[in-house]
Amino acid sequence: MIRPIACLLALSAATAAELAVRDIHLGVASRPGDFDYELTSSTGRVSGADTFDAGASLELGARWSFSGTGDSVGLIAGADLAIDRLDYDGGDGLSVMWGKVAGGLAWALHDRVTLSGEVLAGYGLSSLTLPGSSTAPAFSADGSGTAYEARLGAIYQLTRKVGLGLSAGWQVAAHDLSGDGVDVTLEQSGWYLAFQVAWRMDDAPPALE
Predict the structure, then answer these.
(1) How far apart are CA 129 and CA 53, in angstroms?
(2) Residue 184: which of 121, 123, 130, 136 has the closest Cα?
(3) Which pairing describes strands 54-66 and 22-30: parallel, antiparallel, or unpaired?
(4) Rounded Cα gap, residues 21 and 75, in angstroms
(5) Are 147 and 100 a contacting pair, CB within 8 Å?
(6) DSSP strand pairing (139-157 vs 73-88)
(7) What is the pLDDT of residue 131?
(8) Is the CB of residue 56 less than 8 Å from the CB of residue 84?
């Protein structure tokens, strides 16, 4: 009886994955299009809700895990640079350049599969351009934005160096902009999906000290 148990334990130890995330990634993500707005000018205040036609983001970032020798679960931290673009009425809309920090937990489910859950906080430079119509002239405004995200993701290693990632998250963003004598507040929230290609700089587990 002891020998089969010993063999099983040895097999389990041999196949156990150790967490070692040292990744640089490039990805694309969808962005929620619905938003609430408030316009304030010398003539009064107007508020309402509207929708951008479509939204996408290009992301470049890095992630680093912190775990002990033999651990499959550990902390993960990183940072992203992202450019968001959301069209409006078939033309210009909202553009944002973000800087984000991220933190959370990661789990090496398998030598090739890593799961993660993280929260992100970002600050961005925002630009809004709306086309003119028969009742209103074209409008543009610039300002800043803040964003918070919660994200769950998985990365599958095609090779020791290259992996593909898929994640889903919820984003809440707010923008304060000014232009042409009008102050604009935009608030967005919604689900998004992201796809990434990751390059693992080093896949060696933490050293035993």
Answers:
(1) 13
(2) 130
(3) antiparallel
(4) 10
(5) yes
(6) unpaired
(7) 80
(8) yes
Largest CA distance in the chain: 86
Give, for 136, the enclosing helix (H) or strand (E).
none
Query: Which residues in 89-161 belong to E strands, given as ranges?
Result: 91-108, 113-130, 139-157
pTM for the model stands at 0.84
Q: What residue type is 171 in one-letter code?
A: Q
CA distances from 106 to 18, 75, 78, 114, 154 (A): 11, 6, 12, 7, 9
pLDDT tens, 134-164? 666 788 999 999 999 999 999 999 999 999 9
d(CA 23, CA 161): 9
Helix (H, G, I), strand (E, B) or coil at 15: helix
Residue 13's SS3 state is: helix
Give the DSSP letter of residue 205.
Answer: P
The two tokens of residue 68 are 């002990």
Tens digits of residue pLDDT in 41-66:
888 899 999 999 878 999 999 999 99
Q: Rounded distance, CA 196 to CA 198, Å?
A: 6
Give the tens place of pLDDT for each residue, 67-109: 888 899 999 999 999 999 999 887 789 999 999 999 999 999 9
Res 2: pLDDT = 55
